[in-house]
Amino acid sequence: MEIQYRAALYMRLSKEDQVAGESGSILTQRRILNEYAKENGFVIYREYVDDGCSGTNFERIGFKQMLADISLKKVNLVIVKDLSRFGRDYIGAGEYLEKIFPLQSVRVIAINDGFDSLKKLSYQMLAIKNVFNEMYARDISDKITTALKAKMQSGAYIGNFAPYGYQKDSHNKNKLVVNEETAPIVKQIFHWATQGLNPKRIAEKLNSKQILAPLAYRNFYHTKRKINDEICKQGWNAATIGKILKNPVYLGHLVQGKTRKVSFKLKQLVPVDCAEWIIVKNTHAALVSAEDFELIMQMRRNRTCHRQGSFSNLFSGVAFCKACGRRMSSVGSRKKDSPINLACGAYKAGGIKVCSNHFIEYRVLYDIVLQSLNKELILYEIEWSSLVSRIKEKCRKKIEGVSEDRQVQRLQKRSRELDALISKLYEDYSRGFLTEVRLRKMVMQYEMKYRDIQDVLQLRNHAENIPKDADASTRVDEKILEYIKRWKQLSALSPRMIANFIHSIEIGQGSYEIINGKRRKEQKIYLQFQFEKRTEANTSFDAF
Fold this sequence. Notes:
Elements: E1 6-13, H1 15-19, H2 26-39, E2 43-51, H3 61-71, E3 77-80, H4 83-86, H5 90-103, E4 107-110, E5 115-116, H6 126-153, E6 166-169, E7 172-178, H7 183-194, H8 199-208, H9 214-221, H10 229-233, H11 238-245, E8 254-256, E9 259-261, E10 269-271, E11 278-280, H12 290-308, E12 319-321, E13 328-332, E14 340-344, H13 345-350, E15 360-361, H14 362-400, H15 405-431, H16 436-449, H17 451-457, H18 472-487, H19 495-501, E16 502-507, E17 511-515, E18 518-529, E19 534-542
């Protein structure tokens, strides 16, 4: 029975092919494929086009649509102008042509290469063709990289979008000229910075004036590729201001080549060592003087050094804003005895428009966590002491109740069988593979659900010598008690203690009231311990 072919006409043209001047435009490919299909009596199901897409990977919209139709059995023939249109990754192309498509009973024809998957002779040259196509893609990529590097070294701007405050020259897309609409805003940002305003305060002032942030401005005026509205609504933030204040482009200099591709097959970028950056000075008009720029850099360096000092934030990655869930971030403090405060990271970046501050003094949070942890460790020790006592008492009762030799032998046999298991648990615990929390749970489960197994765990190797030789389960419990006692009554916190005992801390928004002429602050702190207990702490202290 003759197969009825439903053909997919696949066309692709990359930007690299256009730069190389390859005579394979989409129009040309469409004409060649349609003529071939008609001459050979193939029914054309659909055309699939990827214009401007690299052949070094298969993350292409048109290609994926074709694969979807193939999986739905709508297509059983793929026709391309040549194998390079299908792909320039020889491993990926070979995977499709030699494995995936044959399993799906899909025929592939590459017209100019004389390739037809129905003909066995075609496969003899397939690997060579695919390797050649990948080598071609690599060569084109290298040539483009060399050409772009030469452009950068000559002072040409090669970015997709001009930096905020500039625009591309209408007669030369590689030259930056002043944007009369946004340049005054950039100048104002630098002016405020010279007056001592920090990036967060500058962002708040711009947002209060309802001035579009760079991303929103570009999205609204200068690109067809629309960006998520939620991103644009975020407005100015401290990070955006910081990037502007340290960017030498506003001195009239171009600093390019800061990143490079991991591979010509991948879009992922990695940083380049600053010694390899391409810097060309005085390529366009400056928006800030060198004196003001250096003054701002010095002010920022001084502020950073003063803030950091020898301070180490123990709650980094552990403390979160109760309202929005963002991490609490360190901010400066005017108080001598509290060199640092914590505030909501969203507030720090975008101001009150995004979230309230949730300020808390670092020393206050430190004291709360230390006190709460000591309290919980005392309760934890009491709970475990009680548990160990109950286990020992039940052990005595169980053994005293065993009067017949046959029962004793049975329990001793089961004890030996489970001794290896208990030893393994203890070994895992001592190596850190098993947490004390998990260990406690397992013992509790044995106590409640597995009476028979608990009998064996609580038997001693010799029933007549109970006080001298505790069973394996009791030894484990006593080890945990020793561990807890070692940490009990902490005098100071350390990163190790925080990691061992604190899962997360949520900081509520504080409120103020006047009591006996003094301004006091009330604030709720929520501590989640690693041993699955949540504690709410209220703090009240004088605020000046």
